[in-house]
Amino acid sequence: MFIEMIDLLRCINDHEDSWLVASFRTITNRFAIEGTLGCPICSAEYEIKGGVADFSKGIAETRETGGEPSPREREELATRAGAFLNAVEPGATVILGGSWADAAHELSVMTDSRVLALNSSKRVEESERVGIVHVGSAIPVAAGTALGAALDASFSADAMVSAARAVRPGGRIVGPATITPPSGVAVLARDETYWVAEKPVETISLSRAKIMR
Known about the structure:
Elements: H1 3-6, E1 21-28, E2 31-38, E3 45-49, E4 52-55, H2 71-85, E5 93-97, H3 104-111, E6 114-118, E7 130-135, E8 146-150, H4 157-166, E9 167-176, E10 186-190, E11 194-198
Parallel strand pairs: 4-7, 5-6, 5-8, 6-7, 8-9
Antiparallel strand pairs: 1-2, 2-3, 3-4, 9-11, 10-11
Helix pairs in contact: 2-3
């Protein structure tokens, strides 16, 4: 994983967000190949092996696919993901999980964004803009920092809630029709396969101050 991408990651345990402390055993051209990410709050540790950060607690593995999608199929998938997530902000962070992660590289180039590929297939390679992460039911991204997230049916409802937490107000979440959208989001569109929802923008209530005479 590219070192700068590590700044996006957080501990998955239930406490306030905190930067993770990295200890590297092998680094090549600013890519962390082997190392450990430690939480300064709860002392949890997460391994980086072969460039992949593992937050799955041993329950997730690299996804196997029946066949490698063609370059055209990956470009079409990236176009669809970019449109669903309204990924038009250069430098923003996007989360793609499962089959969506097949388009991680293409989306990063198309939108000039940083992509965290969760539980991706073996064909997805890391780069300065694509980080590969193994996860379970929690998404290790700081709350309210991702532009959007798209997960497929290989993820749980808890993972969808965690992804929504990582998305910033006004950002979008794409999930499979088999999982109910997290509470508090507004569904913009749906079909028999996926739904697209938006996280509401936070509002600040104003009150008129009383004037003392």
